[in-house]
TrEMBL record:
InterPro entries the record matches: AASS, AlaDH/PNT_N, Lys1, NAD(P)-bd_dom_sf
Coiled-coil ranges (or none): none
A GO term, aspect molecular function: saccharopine dehydrogenase (NAD+, L-lysine-forming) activity
Record key words, sorted: NAD, Oxidoreductase
Domain Alanine dehydrogenase/pyridine nucleotide transhydrogenase N-terminal per the UniProt entry, residue ranges: 7-141
Protein name (Swiss-Prot/TrEMBL): Saccharopine dehydrogenase (NAD+, L-lysine-forming)
Similarity section: Belongs to the AlaDH/PNT family.
Assigned EC number: 1.5.1.7
Amino acid sequence: MTELHLWLRHEDRDTERRTPVVPSDARRLLAAGVTLTVEESPHRIFPIEEYEAAGCRIAPTGSWVSAPADVVVIGLKELPDEPAGLIHRHIFFGHAYKRQPGAEALLRRFAAGGGSLFDLEYLVDEDGRRLAAFGFWAGYLGAALAVLQHRGRLKAPLAPTSKAELDETLRPAAGDAEFTGLVVGALGRSGRGARVAFATAGVEPTCWDLAETRDLDRPALLAHDVMVNAVLATTPVPPFLREADLDDPGRRLRTLCDVTCDVGSPLNVLPVYDRTTDWTDPARRLREEPPLDLIAIDNLPSLLPLESSTDFSAALLPQLLEFGVGGPWGRGLDRFHQAGRELGIEEGESRHV
Ligand SMILES: NC(=O)c1ccc[n+]([C@@H]2O[C@H](COP(=O)([O-])OP(=O)(O)OC[C@H]3O[C@@H](n4cnc5c(N)ncnc54)[C@H](O)[C@@H]3O)[C@@H](O)[C@H]2O)c1
């Protein structure tokens, strides 16, 4: 491996307590000869002292902007708006390859500075499978929040918690009415997480994946009390629910959690709502009679920062140890250049080839 200097940055969003590299994995990176600088970050779930004890260099919050040009800056979510030109190689979720709001502006910042983006969503093996993802915990939380809402126990606003605390509220209590659950996309990462959370809540859900939705049985879907949608749609399919289904007086469905959150996309399988919900107001009533509540939160894993960071970091570690120009990182870089070309962005002089 070439000499790698990783720079773990502070996350700008103050609700974001997750990190892509946890202290125990920082120790492993150092042992393998990687240089690791960690920025101080008041809301990161792991205190800076744990990184210091592991032997990392410590740097002030946001100091990556003036770090040497050859460092690879690593984080999870969006960068601050400054500097206008990005000179470094960055690893994070850029959400910039599907023409999302702000995508072009971000890619132009890279072009202006000559830096590059290794988007974590596009860190894939040769079969296109994601190598590090938060899906399991998204599904776990999606099902957990849906169960709590259904039992009248969901407390707002939501705040980051631990799995032990969450599970305590999830376990069935005396007097809880029985109900049926459905997980769609049950074979995926989020789907697995949803099934585990349902099990903790004492519910054995019906599990559907591609085979079960090919010829969709909507009456069967509507006969469940709680539904968690965890599909990753790649081609358009008929919607799982339409407005008319919500108006069906025979509908049993009372609580719908859309982990997928493809609202506004042509691939959306639940075109029955027009905006996501959030930590302040996690559930929104879609129908009064009979009632139907929607949960559609797009940053679910941030609610379990310790567990989700630990799993993500463990999956990312082997890739970081192999950081280089080929393999998954090479594919990620190709995808970055392709996105720029699609937007007609002139690539500046790249400093890193
Ligand atoms: N809300 C959040 O905070 C959050 C966080 C992470 C991921 N996600 C989203 O959750 C979704 C699932 O992610 P994942 O990591 O579990 O993906 P995954 O690829 O591991 O699993 C997706 C599953 O959906 C199934 N599927 C696809 N189309 C289907 C269809 N028409 N009918 C039935 N099943 C179908 C696939 O066969 C697969 O088993 C993605 O859209 C992802 O962006 C949301």
